[in-house]
Design a protein that fits this description.
By secondary structure, this protein is mainly alpha-helical. The protein has helices at 5-9, 19-48, 55-90. The protein is rod-shaped.
Length: 96
């Protein structure tokens, strides 16, 4: 069961128990976006613009690429955790 994106898109106030999940979901989205942008930036620095950078900067960009890619994974985990908790709170008492 997927999270109700229509519910999250509306500016209606959510019940108190769902607000932390909405914040976690949004934080996961932002974390993934920042991780993607920084990964692309470090790849561009390390490969596309390598001839314009010092050896130290090239090394930093190569080392930072998997670090930023890990941030994408953390953001995805945050989204999954929010969706899981949201769905557990939304499902009827007998279902899991």
């Amino acid at each position: 069961m997927l999270i109700s994106l229509q519910l999250l898109r509306k500016n209606e106030s959510l019940p108190d128990e769902l607000q932390p999940m909405q914040r976690l979901f949004a934080a996961g989205n932002w974390t993934m976006l920042i991780g993607l942008v920084m990964t692309l930036f470090s790849v561009a620095m390390g490969y596309v613009f390598a001839e314009h950078l010092s050896l130290l900067m090239q090394g930093i960009s190569h080392i930072s690429t998997p670090v930023w890619a890990t941030l994408i994974k953390f953001g995805f985990i945050m989204r999954i955790a929010a969706e899981n908790r949201f769905n557990k709170l939304q499902s009827p008492a007998g279902e899991v």
